[in-house]
């Protein structure tokens, strides 16, 4: 029987997830169909999931914390970062996962060996990525425009600074998790600080996708190997698909089936 999946968010019309997952279902011969569903109130997530008779769902902005509440069982990492982006129904229970951070890590590993990272930004994405990278043995330092969001990082024992207190050290990778450059031409840090950090780095990564941000242009100018948020989007989708299909395929098989969506964007 065909199984149904969806992405929930607000907005959700721009999401590439239906394309990615439907392509992989078709290529792998899995009887699945994936749609998008606009949800305005996060508290309606669970009832909507059951009303639509879904087998699984992805959850995007701004409902990831509601998705954690909707889950009967959350994997420990998703509970720790208070963000679920994948729900799967098994024997009447909703299982919640965070595939953003492991997806990002899978993408990062393709660049080469990384032992130290500078994370720019201190929002939800920065929290999930920093914690996950640290669990993989990577030393993470955080820099953010303002102090408020850094409190959490200080409590968690990360070295963190505002721009004023930041002096560029040597990091294997510089990661942009801020929304600078998303709808404007802003750099994630003042240019002198950014250039000092990039000059000592081996790689640069942006989580923004769909455009070349001023940050990535700068990394390109300095000839640093880099990738944008499309790779993270793809990798989180691969891991979500693995949960959706109950571990029937290898991640490499799913990647091969899903990667061609990039040519269709
Ligand atoms: P949040 O709103 O939680 O945090 C935004 C962060 O960006 C804050 O640290 C904020 O600093 C900083 N910031 C915003 N504007 C600027 C600016 N002009 N200059 C410097 N810093 C700035 O956002 P999220 O963590 O939820 O999302 C961040 C980005 O990640 C978004 O662009 C989103 O599209 C992307 N994303 C991509 C994914 C993918 O699959 N590729 C998945 C998830 C997110 P301050 O604290 O000072 O306000």
Structure description:
The protein has helices spanning 17-28, 45-51, 64-70, 76-81, 100-109, 124-135, 150-155, 191-199, 214-221, 229-244, 251-258, 261-264, and strands at 3-9, 32-38, 56-59, 73-74, 86-90, 93-97, 116-120, 139-144, 159-162, 173-176, 203-206, 226-227. The longest helix has 16 residues, at 229-244. Helix 1 links the parallel strand 1 and strand 2. With 265 residues, it is of the alpha/beta class. It has 2 domains: 3-98 and 230-264, Leucine Dehydrogenase, chain A, domain 1 (Rossmann fold, 3-Layer(aba) Sandwich), CATH 3.40.50.10860; 102-227, 3-Layer(aba) Sandwich (Rossmann fold), CATH 3.40.50.720. The strands form 2 sheets. A 6-stranded mixed beta sheet has the order 2-1-3-5-6-4, with helices on both faces. The protein contains 12 helices and 12 strands. It is globular. The structure holds NADPH dihydro-nicotinamide-adenine-dinucleotide phosphate. NADPH dihydro-nicotinamide-adenine-dinucleotide phosphate is lined by residues 100, 121-126, 144-146, 149, 177-180, 182, 186, 188, 207-209, 229, 232-233, 236.
């Amino acid at each position: 029987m065909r199984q149904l999946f969806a992405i929930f968010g607000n907005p959700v019309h721009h999401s590439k997830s239906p394309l990615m997952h439907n392509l992989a279902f078709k290529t792998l011969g899995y009887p699945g169909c994936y749609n998008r569903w606009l949800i305005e109130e996060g508290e309606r997530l669970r009832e909507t999931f059951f009303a639509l008779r879904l087998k699984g769902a992805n959850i995007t902005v701004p409902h990831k914390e509601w998705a954690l509440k909707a889950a009967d069982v959350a994997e420990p990492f998703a509970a720790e970062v208070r963000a679920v982006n994948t729900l799967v129904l098994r024997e009447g229970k909703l299982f919640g996962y965070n595939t953003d951070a492991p997806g990002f890590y899978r993408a990062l590993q393709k660049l080469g060996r990384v032992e130290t990272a500078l994370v720019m930004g201190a929002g939800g994405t920065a929290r999930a990525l920093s914690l996950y990278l640290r669990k993989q043995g990577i030393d993470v330092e955080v820099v953010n425009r303002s102090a408020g969001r850094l409190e959490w990082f200080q409590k968690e024992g990360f070295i963190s600074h505002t721009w004023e207190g930041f002096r560029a050290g040597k990091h294997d990778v510089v990661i942009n998790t801020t929304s600078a450059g998303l709808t404007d031409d802003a750099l994630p840090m003042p240019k002198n600080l950014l250039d000092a950090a990039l000059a000592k780095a081996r790689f640069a990564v942006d989580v923004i996708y769909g455009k070349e941000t001023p940050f990535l242009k700068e990394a390109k100018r300095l000839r640093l190997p880099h990738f944008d948020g499309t790779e993270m989007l793809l990798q989180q989708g691969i891991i979500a698909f693995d949960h959706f299909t109950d571990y029937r395929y290898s991640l490499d098989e799913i990647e091969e089936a899903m990667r061609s969506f990039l040519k269709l964007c």
